[in-house]
Inverse folding.
């Protein structure tokens, strides 16, 4: 049952991240192959780094369906381009869902491999965020994780909730869903109330130097 649950959220997460990558590539007028590449890298980038660090077989090399899901997402964006590309909130939705579900997968795979929860939290952040970093680099944008937006911090909060539910005796479904819900809610609050982390700006550094 646990493997089935993880498979379901991995399929949904892969599709969500692939669509977010393909949609952004479309705004940059990439051709179909370029858009597919960006979508695929967004979907598998974080998990690839995670598996390399955990020293386990890289997940997408074990089955072809990650490539197929990305291809289907490309077809969907091509068909519904006018609807998907013109709506910024849809990108936010797909990106948030992908981030949340991949965070869960990163945590669970780390725990299944025998690593402690603190490693799982880090791997959750990497799985959720690193594909987006590669996506933004490919489309020549500043990576979202390095901006003041609540992004990796949402994964960290989700990992904390995952651990709390685990300590309280919740099963893997409750752990995963509570973690994913925390990430999505924080991302929604970020959009709704324009929340952000403090910025380490050059003006602050300049004032500090003047006071020395």
């Amino acid at each position: 049952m646990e493997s089935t649950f993880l498979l379901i959220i991995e399929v949904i997460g892969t599709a969500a991240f692939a669509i977010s990558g393909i949609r952004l590539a479309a705004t940059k007028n990439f051709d179909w192959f370029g858009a597919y590449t960006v979508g695929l890298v967004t979907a598998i980038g974080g998990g690839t780094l995670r598996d390399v660090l955990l020293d386990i077989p890289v997940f997408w090399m074990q089955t072809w369906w990650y490539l197929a899901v990305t291809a289907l997402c490309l077809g969907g964006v091509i068909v519904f381009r006018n609807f998907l590309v013109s709506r910024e909130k849809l990108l936010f939705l797909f990106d948030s869902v992908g981030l949340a579900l991949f965070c869960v997968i990163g945590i669970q795979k780390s725990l299944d491999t025998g690593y402690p929860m603190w490693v799982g939290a880090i791997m959750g952040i990497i799985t959720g965020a690193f594909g987006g970093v590669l996506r933004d680099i490919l489309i020549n944008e500043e990576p979202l994780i390095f901006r003041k937006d609540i992004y990796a911090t949402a994964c960290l909060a989700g990992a904390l909730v995952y651990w709390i539910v685990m300590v309280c005796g919740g099963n893997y479904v409750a752990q995963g869903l509570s973690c994913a819900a925390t990430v999505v809610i924080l991302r929604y609050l970020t959009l709704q109330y324009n929340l952000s982390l403090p910025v380490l700006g050059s003006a602050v550094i300049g004032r500090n130097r003047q006071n020395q």
About this structure: DSSP finds nine helices and no strands in the chain. The two ends are 61 Å apart (CA to CA). The mean pLDDT is 88.
